[in-house]
Amino acid sequence: xxxxxxxxxxxxxxxxxxxxxxxxxxxxxxxxxxxxxxxxxxxxxxxxxxxxxxxxxxxxxxxxxxxxxxxxxxxxxxxxxxxxxxxxxxxxxxxxxxxxxxxxxxxxxxxxxxxxxxxxxxxxxxxxxxxxxxxxxxxxxxxxxxxxxxxxxxxxxxxxxxxxxx
Length: 166
Description:
The chain is an alpha/beta fold. It is built from six helices and five strands. Strand 1, helix 1 and strand 2 form a beta-alpha-beta unit. Helix 3 packs parallel to helix 4. It is globular, with a radius of gyration of 16 Å. The model has no long low-confidence stretch (mean pLDDT 87).
């Protein structure tokens, strides 16, 4: 299947980033999985994806990063019309209450995963958040039926006219 949607993982510790990508391996046939080690690199990835008309459906972002922190980056993404619908997950072991509240209130945070994490939680989170993105973005859900929440996608098909010959 052609990867029209991407998942972006932003984490500065290579071993942690590798583990996160490994946990998302089941999604690689359906979504392009991109990585970045800091906000500057993530911005470059977003620019490249935008240039190739690939939307980012989900971002896993660490809080403590070199340079700009992850919460501030998520706030910027939430303000940007190009990434406002993107599902945002704060993926960290060091965000305090204030940073987490900021992420929820100002960055449209959709989920929080504490490190160390359970791989099943990452998979369930990705499945739920990407399902919601596909539905909210009005994308054809049929290509994602094998990997995302079939019940939610089926309900979206029933509510919308995705199956016409138009």
